[in-house]
Design goal:
With about 525 residues, the protein is mainly alpha-helical. It contains 24 helices and five strands. The protein folds into three domains: about 5-40, no CATH class; about 50-385, no CATH class; about 410-530, no CATH class. It has helices spanning about 10-15, 25-30, 50-65, 75-85, 100-110, 115, 120-140, 145-155, 155-160, 170-190, 190-205, 210-225, 235-255, 260-275, 280-290, 295-310, 315-335, 345-355, 370-385, 400-405, 410-420, 435-445, 480-485, 525-530; strands at about 430-435, 455, 475, 490-495, 510-520. Helix 3 (about 50-65) packs antiparallel against helix 7 (about 120-140), helix 4 packs across helix 5 (about 100-110) and helix 10 (about 170-190) packs antiparallel against helix 11 (about 190-205). It is globular, with a radius of gyration of 25 Å.
Length: about 525
């Protein structure tokens, strides 16, 4: 092997690889250290590059800290707050309970502080930098490989953008990275406590999103194809699976009781991606681009090639298959490009190992160089974080999406409250938001402004409850008169949301506000008809 610390492997590996014809692979296998009972002899690793890796992690944390207080809650953050604080449950249509619980807990400690809420994604993103470097170290990478991997993770556009907000796309990738590191470390040490840790991390991940099941499907297929098959014979692995199922059972039962809305949401996501992000054809290009241009994109592609071809990474070839399997699953079932972001560090680390050894073509060596890293820092920050003037927002592209979705939520509630106070009669009145973001804003900000209970027909918010049967009047934020006329005999537009940032195109600028009367059917029937996934 290129480095004696890149893996001491046991007899099971030798058995798995004995039939391989590739000469390089045979040479790689002869380097394993074998002890009695087929267990690997622990070998030394390259020294952990603590100072530069921790410095990169701290720099990421400081950048995210500097922008954590910008603009206000993002729409998804409000959704977690509203559902967690007022309609907490074991499950929701689009996610399990973890994110609402975290949002509820942080809001209890720091009421109304979106700055405090964003400390959690900040810490997870910074920690991901360190764990990414540890994956490179487990591969046998020295200081240079570890720093390249950490730097690429820190500058990956998707990772940096998600690090600004509390979202499933922030929590989930970190747990994928953590599980990947534990599995990679197990390959070298065969310590089953690492599989126990991976099982616990998986159990936590399943409470935020079910996607980590894709990672394990990929790993299982990978080890069946390329080894080490000994992984599948470890009781600790399956014990971790049992723990994951037991911990996830309450949210699974919620899904069963509600006819699995989570599966319906995947169809909604596919439709949105087809309409906005190029559908299946756009998924892989976006995943590559959002790894960061040019460094992350190059490391991603080169890393996948390296996992399949480099003899020193032969023990970890199953991870290349895992990446391929997860990508196919995402293409078929979801089409969200960022669902594969948790696998970025595996590919970054594989590429960095080869770069450190000087085994890349000369014309590509300029990509992961210090000048390119230095130039990539301001580009990544400018394109992914809310550092631009508000008036420059378009509200429609990837760059502005989060920032434009973080403006105007108090104004939404204030405008609805003005309409509510102006009504001749407030009896039997509720407020509703057309989108789950608007409904969440009315719930979270409306209570302190004297508004009645808030409801919404879209996505997961529909499951939080419907108006009581005696409701005769609705203040409705968003939507169109044509759509609302299907459900109410009297639809009257009474106001418009106006934000101070008049030239910015945001999620709330110019949104209409209606007063609805004369529901055309009893509320149980009407609520079913209004439901919009």
């Amino acid at each position: 092997m290129a480095d004696s610390g890149s893996g001491g492997l046991g007899g099971d590996f030798a058995d798995d690889f004995a039939d391989q014809d590739d000469v390089d692979d045979e040479r790689a296998c002869t380097a394993v250290a074998v002890v009695d009972e087929g267990e690997p002899e622990p070998t030394g690793l390259p020294e952990f590059a603590r100072l530069p890796v921790y410095a990169i992690a701290a720099a990421v944390g400081l950048v995210l800290l500097a922008v954590a207080g910008k603009f206000g809650y993002f729409g998804d953050e409000l959704y977690f707050l509203a559902t967690g604080k007022h309609q907490w449950a074991w499950g929701y249509a689009d996610n399990p309970w973890l994110l609402p619980w975290l949002a509820k807990s942080m809001d209890a400690l720091f009421p109304g502080s979106w700055f405090a809420l964003r400390i959690i994604p900040l810490l997870l993103t910074s920690a991901g930098v360190v764990v990414s470097a540890l994956i490179a170290r487990e591969f046998g990478g020295g200081r240079k490989a570890q720093v390249i991997t950490a730097g690429a993770y820190a500058l990956a556009w998707q990772i940096l953008a998600s690090g600004h907000v509390m979202a499933t796309s922030t929590v989930d990738p970190f747990l994928w990275v953590l599980v990947s590191w534990l599995v990679v470390r197990w390959v070298r040490t065969r310590s089953d406590w690492l599989l126990v840790g991976a099982g616990l991390a998986t159990a936590v991940a399943m409470q935020g999103k079910f996607l980590i099941a894709f990672l394990w499907v990929g790993i299982i297929v990978g080890v069946l194809v390329a080894g080490p098959r000994d992984l599948l014979r470890r009781p600790a692995l399956w014990a971790g699976g049992v723990v994951t199922v037991v911990v996830t059972l309450p949210t699974l039962l919620w899904q069963v009781d509600n006819d699995w809305p989570y599966l319906l949401m995947q169809e909604v996501i596919k439709e949105q991606n087809a309409r906005l992000l190029g559908g299946t054809l756009g998924t892989i290009p976006l995943a590559v681009a959002m790894a960061g241009l040019p460094i992350g994109a190059f490391l991603l592609c080169h890393g996948l090639y390296t996992l399949f071809r480099a003899p020193e990474l032969r023990p970890y070839r199953f991870l290349g298959w895992a990446v391929a399997v997860v990508t196919v699953i995402v293409l078929v079932f979801a089409n969200r490009y960022y669902y594969v972001a948790g696998m970025y560090p595996i590919l970054f680390a594989a590429s960095a190992l080869r770069i450190e050894a000087g085994r890349t073509a000369a014309w590509w060596r300029w990509v992961p160089s210090w000048p390119v890293f230095a130039l990539s820092v301001p580009v990544a920050v400018y394109l992914t974080l809310p550092v631009r003037p508000v008036d420059g927002f378009t509200g429609v592209d990837l760059v502005d999406f989060q920032a434009s979705g973080s403006l105007g939520w108090p104004e939404v509630a204030e405008t609805a409250a003005d309409v509510y106070r102006s009504l001749p009669s407030q009896a039997d009145t509720v407020v509703m938001g057309d989108s789950y973001w608007q409904a969440s804003a009315l719930d979270y900000y409306g209570r302190q402004r004297g508004l009645p209970d808030a409801y919404g027909p879209e996505r997961g918010y529909w499951f939080t409850g419907r108006p009581v049967d005696t409701t005769q009047q609705v203040i409705y934020v968003g939507g169109t008169q044509e759509w609302l006329s299907q459900f109410f005999g009297d639809v009257r537009r009474v106001d418009t949301i106006r934000l101070p940032q008049t030239s910015a195109k945001t999620a709330n600028q110019g949104v209409p506000v209606y007063v609805l009367k004369a529901p055309v059917a009893p509320w149980p029937e009407l609520w079913e008809r209004m439901h919009r996934p």
